[in-house]
Amino acid sequence: METTTTPLLPSNESPSSSLAAVPEEEEDYLPAASQTFKDFIKNVFWRETVKLWKIAGPIALSLIYQNGTNILTSIFVGHLGNLQLAAVSVSLSVIITFCFGFLLGMGSALETLCGQAFGAGQVHMLGIYLQRSCFILLVTCVIRCPIYIFAAPLLKVLGQDAELAALAGKFTLLAIPNLFSWAIYFPTQKFLQAQRKVGVITWIAIVALILHAFWLWLFIYEFDWGITGAAVAFDLTGWLIALAQAAYVMGWCKEGWRGFSWSAFKDIWSFVTLSLASAVMLCLEIWYMMSIVVLTGHLDNAVIAVGSLTICLNINGLELMLFLGINAAISVRVSNELGLGHPEAAKYSVYVTVFQFLVIGLICMSAVLVAKDYFAYIFTSSKVMQVATSKLAFILAITMVLNSVQPVI
């Protein structure tokens, strides 16, 4: 790993040159063996919990609201009919998730580098990393674009129902503008997260989700555009979030953003290598759900099977976004502490996070089991779809626990 991370962080400034940028205690934690259990809870567990959730809370909320665009899209389309719900769900869960997972992973490299630079006081490097990441993700979007263009025949090759694949392909083709918004959305999000400016991310996501619900109602029901209206709303919301975050970065982050620079095009390959490594690790977590949807499409009565499964995946996605938010926060915490030379603090941050992930997973499992006969009502009016979804609730509940610890590890 030395060849991917170290060269990207210049050494011409001492970590102590700008430590004021990191508003944390400068002392590392004492080893656990030298503390009583009570002192450990007070001085380590509680302090780490507060630090973690100050960052993780807004990030997780923003990701949940971001994922809420997918869920709201499924809800509005689901009341048009079972075929429309299944088609849009396949598009969102297979084609769009395939590219989303890869681009999110590519953007996660920026999370590590910006966190280390911020922790080491080299705040001026954040803008360089941001531009470099935007360029790499833009090229990646161009490479991924044919997957969107040929979504319908690709889904047919994967064994999906012909009518379902055609409708899903139509929605995916119209969602191409949303794909390119991620080239700005992910880097600007990681840039702000590294500096703990996460409140603005949350507020942008909240406003965008409210507008998304309005646009879905307007385009689908008032204009009677059907899934075309859903795709238009999806594109508008994606670009609203991306441009709002970019405007905040360029207008209110003067220390980290110092304008466009040719330095962004240096060390491109090292950055790409780190980005690809991050993408592979994260995609293994996200893509398995995509493969399950594809396999479900081979069952009898594929529309009901795919629709009920994707309703469960939407619920699971809310928990996953929470965990990804906490995962982003722990990445920032560990990077900052390592940049400050605090290995004990970095280690205990991970321990505390793993414990809290497991507790959250158990709570989510209990909630699913209690509401197993009711949560499908939100997505569909079809009794057949509601019953099919209820039958999957136990498996969904177990999945909520199994997914709880893995993201942070």
UniProtKB/TrEMBL annotation:
Any GO BP: xenobiotic detoxification by transmembrane export across the plasma membrane
Biased composition (Low complexity): 1-19
CDD domains registered for this protein in UniProt: MATE_eukaryotic
Pfam families: MatE
Keyword Membrane set for record: yes
Any one GO MF annotation of this record: antiporter activity
The organism's place on the tree of life at top rank: Eukaryota
Membrane topology: Multi-pass membrane protein
Protein family membership: Belongs to the multi antimicrobial extrusion (MATE) (TC 2.A.66.1) family.
Entry protein name: Protein DETOXIFICATION
